[in-house]
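Fold this sequence, please.
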Amino acid sequence: MLKWNPAELKKNLITDLVENGEIVGKFVETDARQRLLAIRDPEWGKGHRNYVSRLLTNMVETESNAVVIKIGLPPGKTTKEGKQTRHLGFYIEMGDAHHAAHPYLRPAVFMNAARIVALLGGK
C-alpha cells in the first residue's frame, strides 16, 4: 500500500530539479559561449569576447521555495565609493552609446526554451 508523504515528495522533487537544473545551466552556458565566440563585429573586440567567454559560468541554488539556475558572469569591480560596476560582458550583450548590442546570453535562453523545459523535466 502506498502512503502519501508530501515531505518526501518535495525532497525528491527538489533533488530532481537541482540535478536537471545543473544540466540546463551547463547547456545554456555552452550555447551562450558558442554564440559569444561566433560574434565577429567589431574585429578589435575578439580579445574581449574570448575573455568574457572564459568567465561564463552557471550555478544552481536552492532557496526556501525555489530552485534557481544562474548563468552569467561574475560581478564587475567595486569602486572606491562601494558601487558595483557592470562587467564587460554586460556591454557586449546590451551595447552602449557607442557600440551595438551583440546578445549572446538572452538568445541562449529564449531560443532554447522548449529544450530547457524538456531538460528540467528530465527528458
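The chain has a mean pLDDT of 92. The two ends are 29 Å apart (CA to CA).
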